[in-house]
Write a structure and sequence with these properties.
This protein has helices spanning 3-11, 14-27, 36-58, 63-92, 96-107, 111-123, 132-150, 157-166, 168-195, 199-216, 218-224, 226-249, 254-265, 271-279, 285-316. It is mostly helical.
């Protein structure tokens, strides 16, 4: 599969096309909108389904197989916020608190990017390890916590960490993971028609809504300038490359390594914003939301994931 075929495979997937349909709806001032209850229901469904399917796979995985990938993921959870913080301070020249807010977002994970990467490697004929949702949880928490520590937040830091741990993204994924792990294949057989077969359809609708949200943030990108655009595209490349190297070291398959790279390259827009707003109210959300959702997310969706896959094929040989 050549580079053009990789890009075609990604661009013509229903998920990516739905994302840009949402962007187009905003640019053309369409009256299209998602009811808030539907958006919330899709979020809950996707997050629990991710965890549940991962838990079923985890019930069939040995501790020995999980150990090195878990260590690699935790290392990513420490390194990526530190790198993002240093780059934000040096190249964006933002204040310490603003750099820490960006570090929390770029150290954490976008669950939808994770899902898009899973769908991509599957379409490319590969299969990521079933315990990958476990690694999402491992990467989600340390990135946010380190970002908040970098801001030297006082008073509210403990509450902010609690907010991350019990927030819907981590809670649902970890909870779903536990349910899937305990119920195993027998439990999966009972709910497969709801949590497996309709999954990609729900993801497609969710991405349409995200496309509309991203389009509404384009004004922020224009206002903050080219440096924010450069930050939002170069940091994912750096983090994605690091994810590939650590995934290879951990013994993941090509599919698993590419998904880990996409996880490291992504930026959170669910758990991290909730925590940052609580701990760093003086930082404008337009900075980190515009960077993560209007720049990094579409970049990974269109170019990043195929690029990580192409680099992975070279690394895995």
């Amino acid at each position: 599969m050549d580079a053009l075929e990789l890009i075609r495979l990604n661009l013509l997937s229903p998920m990516v096309l739905a994302f840009f349909l949402g962007v187009l709806a905003v640019l053309l001032k369409s009256d299209l909108s998602f009811p808030e209850p539907l958006y919330a229901a899709l979020s809950l469904y996707l997050l629990f389904a991710i965890g549940f399917k991962g838990g079923v796979e985890l019930s069939k995985t040995s501790l020995e197989a999980l150990l090195r990938p878990a260590l690699a993921t935790l290392l990513l959870g420490v390194l990526t916020p530190l790198l993002a913080y240093a780059l934000a301070r040096r190249f964006l020249r933002v204040r310490q608190e603003e750099a820490a807010a960006l570090a929390a977002h770029y150290g954490s994970v976008s669950a939808v990017t994770f899902l898009a990467a899973l769908a991509f490697v599957q379409a490319a004929g590969h299969r990521a390890e079933g315990f990958m949702p476990t690694l999402v949880a491992f990467l989600e928490v340390p990135g946010v916590v380190i970002g908040l520590l970098l801001a030297r937040a006082r008073g509210d830091l403990r509450e902010a960490v609690r907010e991350v741990l019990v927030g819907r993204s981590v809670f649902l994924m970890v909870g779903g993971l536990l349910v899937g792990f305990l119920s195993g294949e027998e439990g999966m057989a009972k709910v497969k028609a709801f949590f497996v077969d309709p999954f990609n359809g729900a993801l497609t609708l969710f991405l349409m809504e995200l496309g509309m949200v991203a389009a509404r943030r384009l004004q922020d990108v224009r206002r903050l300038g080219a440096r924010l655009f450069a930050f939002g595209t170069l940091v994912p490349l750096l983090h994605g490359g690091l994810g590939l190297l650590l995934g290879h070291w951990a013994g993941l398959s090509l599919g698993g390594g590419v998904v880990l790279a996409a996880m490291a390259a992504s930026a959170s827009y669910i758990a991290a914003p909730a925590a940052v707003r609580l701990a760093l109210p003086q930082v404008s959300p337009s900075l980190y939301i515009a960077a993560s959702l209007a720049v990094t997310f579409p970049f990974n969706l269109v170019l990043g994931i195929p690029l990580y896959y192409a680099l992975g094929r070279v690394l895995w040989g």
